[in-house]
Amino acid sequence: MKIRFWGVRGSIPAPGPDTNRYGGNTSCVSVTTDAGGLVIIDMGTGLMHLGNHLMAGAFGKGEGRAAILLSHTHWDHIQGLGFFAPVFVAGNAFTVYGPGGSPQVLEEILEGQMDPNFSPLQTLKNFSATFDVQAVRCGAPFEAAGLRITAREHAHGSTTALAFRIEEGDKAFVYASDVGQPEPGAPPSPDAIAFYRGADVLLHDTTYKPADQAKRRNRGFSTFEDAAAAAVAARVKRLVTFHYDQDYSDDDVDALVASCRATLDASGGADVELVPAREGDELAI
Amino acid sequence: MKVRFWGVRGSIPVPGRATNRYGGNTSCVEVRPRNAAPIIIDAGTGLRRLGKSLMEEAFGDGRGRASILISHTHWDHVQGLPFFSPLYRAGNQVDIFARQRDLHLEAVFSAQNRSPYFPVPLSAMEAEMRFHELIEGTRFEIGHATVSCTRLNHPWIAMAYRIDVDGAAVVYCADTAPFTDVLFGKEFLHKAPSLDEPLPPAVAAELARMRAGVVGLARNADLLIYDTQFTKEEYRRFPHWGHSHPDDAIAIARDAGAKRLCLFHHAPMRSDDDNDRILAQYREVVRAQEDRFELVSAYEGLEITLGDE
């Protein structure tokens, strides 16, 4: 499978010359299978650019199919949906798998973004494509786009978010963004480590440098130290840094990545390859 | 007064190399009367950086005062508010003004800040926030500034504002469609209506009244900031989206006798080079028509001083 980053930023898009290299769009990652299947993870503003890219192919002709995995429904993970061109082409079909416990609840949450006070679209029903909403059952693997997918719920501040383990044959990609730590520096939970275990690629929340995490009131995010600890404990092959703080410049992210490398090297993770997520980059497993 | 642009983009923020010069943040303009608290127009993502800058002033000590005029509550005009640092400091006071809606204004803004969309509810933000509902034609004072407003032609209705202070006037008209083809209300328009058939007389009359209101609001303004999301060609394809184009903005500026016209609310996919080309093209048009106003195009960081220094 091929993984591509369309948005790697947390909380709110961060335009400006100082975010050109890593990118300023909020969370969106695509996974393309060898058989041509498409899974989209999260619908931040990066989704608009993925959509424009997809319109050149089957989605432009109303023949596109994709599964969308939704970690949670904070704005930075759904705000690209109204600007995703393929949903305005009849014939395309999408199935969203996300939190909420029931499809009705999740659909109502997604409808909230289209409320006419906020959006000229007024309702999801104005999409031309088929847009099916499913609630994920954690721990129960399901199949989408020919991939085997398992979800796990983790703490995200005062709420929760979903991590996804995506498997094709014996290859595994784990997406774990917006991972909150109950206490700064607390070790990752054994359940989380079991879920990440042996992944070819672990994409993990690295919103903060540790000193900045301490200054924030919200405990909904991880530092690069948290991510490195999870990667080492789960013996993953590659660790992807992701969901950078909106105030971090490219130079700040460079420093975060270098510190993460040093942390891995000093904690038994010298053999873990470190890949910083950058908008537009592609990673093959 | 000083007028400073913090977000000039329409629809959705667009980070990236193609928008470095004009900027990728959504709508936010700061009006700073001489020796007075800021009057902010719209709360798009540009508001985040403005908030950081304000924290260097009295807002950092919890002694700040600001007013925010909201044109309408579409995402690109409100999505910066949860990230406005002064709201997280006790003692600061922020007055928010917007047109009356079906839901009370505070309920609309609370919806943006609630679970499962955002972790901090409005009620947990430490600053004092007061919500003021307006209807078109309302005129009120903020410090020594006078604010007036009129209705624009946009889905679910937007408001234009005029601020008179320090011997000058700035007028903000976003978002609006031209007043010639579609009368926007609450219906969702699935596709573009025909632009070649005559309008029913009642609709034409309502649009003419609305246009007269805008021209009246902008009368002799020193600076008119106008929604020019589209080119004229794009407008003909998307007249049902509620945005205007430079030809229409120029006609309004001319009729109003405005002294300077500022193109604003740039389309998300418009690159810096596109914006340069549009500005150059319409500067030619303005020159050829012997219009008396200066044409500028809004970019993040643009600051314009009006009236008394």
Explain this structure:
- The complex is a heterodimer of chains A (285) and B (309).
- With 285 residues, chain A is of the alpha/beta class.
- Chain A has a single domain, classed as Metallo-beta-lactamase, Chain A (4-Layer Sandwich).
- Chain A has helices at residues 46-54, 103-114, 190-196, 210-215, 224-234, 250-266; strands at 2-7, 28-32, 38-41, 65-69, 93-98, 130-135, 142-144, 147-156, 159-168, 171-176, 201-205, 238-242, 273-276, 282-284.
- Chain A has a seven-stranded mixed beta sheet. A seven-stranded mixed beta sheet of chain A has the order 7-8-9-10-11-12-13.
- Chain B has a single domain (2-305), classed as Ribonuclease Z/Hydroxyacylglutathione hydrolase-like (Metallo-beta-lactamase, Chain A, 4-Layer Sandwich), CATH 3.60.15.
- Chain B has seven helices and 14 strands.
- Chain B has a seven-stranded mixed beta sheet with strand order 6-5-4-3-2-1-14.
- The longest helix of chain B is centred in the last third of the chain and has 17 residues, at 201-217.
- Chain B starts with a strand and ends with a strand.
- Chain A binds chain B through residues 9, 11-17, 19-20, 23-25, 45, 48, 52, 72-75, 78-80, 82-83, 99-100, 109, 112-113, 115-123, 126, 157-159, 218, 220, 246, 279, and chain B through 11-17, 19-20, 23-25, 45, 48, 73-75, 78-80, 82-83, 101-103, 108, 111-112, 115-120, 155-156, 186, 188, 190, 241-242, 268-269.
As for the CATH topology of chain A, it is Metallo-beta-lactamase, Chain A
Strand segment tally of chain B: 14
- CATH topology (level 3) name of chain B: Metallo-beta-lactamase, Chain A
Q: Write down the CATH class of chain A.
A: Alpha Beta
The largest interface is: A-B, 47 and 43 residues
Q: What is the SS-derived class of chain A?
A: alpha/beta
Oligomer: heterodimer
Strand adjacency order, main sheet of chain B: 6-5-4-3-2-1-14
Task: Give the overall shape of chain A.
Answer: globular
Tell me the strand percentage band of chain B. 15-25%
Order of helices and strands of chain A: EEEHEEHEEEEEHEHHEHEE
Q: Tell me about the biggest sheet of chain B?
A: 7 strands, mixed
